[in-house]
Amino acid sequence: MAEARDRREAKRTTRVIASYLQEDWYRSVDSGWSQRLGHSGLGIEGRLQSAALMLALRSLTRRHRCCGRRCGPGVEGRIDQVIEDEVRLPIETSDLCERESPADAVVAIARELTTEPVAFDIAPLWRGVLARTANERHVLVLAVHHAIWILGCRRVLLEDLVALYGAALVGREEPLACGYGSLICQQRSEASCFRRYP
């Protein structure tokens, strides 16, 4: 029985050695909690399709396995990254339509998300709030640990999320199997419902 459980667990996770930076972050956190979070917001205009957005987020975590990452003790005292195949989607919702300034409320949500520590040993190392700011206007605020999006990763993850949501809206398969040039042509030919949120 225990052997079967261990095999199922092994299929759902991959262990790899953490980078020196990730190891430093893990060893420097107090009680396994870290506050090294950055945030971004994506504005979604038009009728929101929650199921398509959740599908896009799940597809993103499958495509970019770093989104299902956590860190923990490995063998011989080293720190390992443990990459989960399936992770819970830590997205809450908030209706800001009645607020005097929905934009200020979005900024406050982003600030709160990035100041609340995240457990470094529980995947995923990100969380978000889907905020409704007006009729048919939403903002997806994401707070992500720097172990996931450092350097150029942030832009790639956000662009892929936009493409995956667009594909989910029209019932297409994940559009990202094509090469970089094809993806750029596709993005330029389609009107996007996403825009950067300040």
CATH-assigned fold name of the domain at 37-67 and 87-191: Chloramphenicol Acetyltransferase
- Tell me how many strands there are: 10
What is the subunit organization of this protein?
single chain
- In whole angstroms, the N-to-C terminal distance is 52 Å
H-E string: HEHEEHEEEHEEEHHE
Percentage beta strand? 25-35%
**Which geometry do the CA atoms define?**
globular
**Global mean pLDDT:** 77
* Coarse structural class: alpha+beta
Q: What is the CATH superfamily of the domain at 37-67 and 87-191?
A: Chloramphenicol acetyltransferase-like domain
CATH class of the domain at 37-67 and 87-191: Alpha Beta
* Low-pLDDT regions: 4-11, 178-184, 193-198
Order of strands, widest sheet = 6-8-9-3-10
| CATH-defined architecture of the domain at 37-67 and 87-191 | 2-Layer Sandwich
Helix fraction?
A: 25-40%
Largest sheet: 5 strands, mixed
Total DSSP helices: 6
Rg (C-alpha, Å)? 18 Å
Secondary-structure blueprint:
Elements: H1 2-12, E1 13-17, H2 20-28, E2 33-34, E3 37-45, H3 50-63, E4 69-73, E5 79-84, E6 91-95, H4 102-115, E7 118-119, E8 126-134, E9 137-145, H5 153-169, H6 180-189, E10 194-196
Parallel strand pairs: 6-8
Antiparallel strand pairs: 1-5, 2-7, 3-9, 3-10, 4-5, 8-9
